[in-house]
Amino acid sequence: MKKIDIEKITSWYKENHVVGLDDRYLTSDNIRPHLTALNELFKVEKIGESFEGRAINKVIFGRGKIKIFLWTQMHGNESTGTRALLDLMEFFTKPEAEANLANYILEAATIYCIPILNPDGAVAYTRVNAQGIDLNRDVIDKKAKESQLLQDWLKKINPDFCFNLHDQRTIFSVAPHNKTATLSFLAPSIDEKRSLNQGRKETMTVIAAMNDLLQQFIPDQIGRYTDEFYPTATGDNFQKMGHNTILIESGHAKGDYNRYISREATFMALLEGMRCIAAGLGTDNHLSYLRIPNNEKKYLDAIFKNVSVAGRKTDIGVLFIEELVQEKVCFRPSIDQMKDLDDYNADEIINGENLDFENKNAAENWLKNRFN
Q1: How many angstroms separate the CA atoms of 234 and 245, rounded?
Q2: Where are the domains of the chain?
Q3: Chain center to CA of 268
Q4: pLDDT tens column, 57-67
């Protein structure tokens, strides 16, 4: 199957992406009408309930032998992947000029999706579930109902590939110019040595192809997440079990606080990933994955240069803290760094030579008014 044409797919997306899902705050109630409206290509069924009794659904489409398992919002406040998944479903509903690509994937693979694994966390806009459990660190203990459900379906499906979708904070950057990391990937390790077995090489090969496509859309804004082995992490353990697992971290693009750009990039990543899996790329290009720059933490929402604080000149780096206010995500400025920030980048870099504060608290109070 020929590679995806970036111009065609961006044109398709502009005309056909799912409308009405613009807010970062996204719950099961928000997506229910979209799941209900899916056509006969999709099978939607309730497969369980969250700790607080909210429905968790599974969506199946495709008819091929390769099994792909995908879930979103295991962290309730990370919704970009859910919106991108609904865009992906729309692509298979309305492929139009890309019908050959859609049919190619549907003939090769069967795709199993759990949109919003953590519906209680989504409502509360928290990373954890209603019990305070981080589902992404609960793979061994399985204390949460949601974790048990995910692993029950992992066993039932026995997938060849998994996609674990997350959001990452604004602070992540990509070397060498410290642009914002709008998207990051990870092929999880299977042990502390970060060994490269056949499955991990296959995972890395698919990510390398996804990166090649997306460099045409968000050049130099794609990072590689640390592959340090986490013994209790979902991706590491699923990869260790033999289910090739790709983590996608949807991040910030300059000025794009609703994450429209990373949503579109995540949609493209999923589509290209599924195309590559359907094609069976093997492991020949796995080393290209290692050439994706590592994520760093050198991007901020704003930097004020040469500010006086308690009689000392310094730079102030601001990160926005997300807060849910009446079902809307608001951004509160918070001082993250007070030092020379010449090697950092930001959405705004402001000359602060005329600013003079008695202390850090005074600076924080001024910032609240500045970004109100």
Answers
A1: 9
A2: 6-296, 300-370
A3: 12
A4: 999 999 999 99
Distance CA(248)–CA(368), nearest Å, equals 32
Residue 44 CA to residue 93 CA, distance in Å, equals 14
- pTM for this model (two decimals): 0.97
Positive or negative: CA dihedral 186, 46, 275, 243: positive
**Distance between CA atoms of residues 148 and 127, nearest Å:** 18
- Cβ contacts of residue 132 below 8 Å, gap of 6+? none
- Radius of gyration of the chain measured on its C-alpha atoms: 21
Cα–Cα distance measured from residue 151 to residue 142, given in angstroms and rounded to the nearest whole number:
9
Q: Read off the pLDDT of residues 207-253 as tens digits, 9 standing for 90 and up.
A: 999 999 999 999 999 999 999 999 999 999 999 999 999 999 999 99
Fold that domain 6-296 belongs to in CATH: Aminopeptidase (3.40.630)
The residue assigned the tokens 């992404």 is 136
From CA 84, how far away is CA 327, in angstroms rounded? Answer: 21
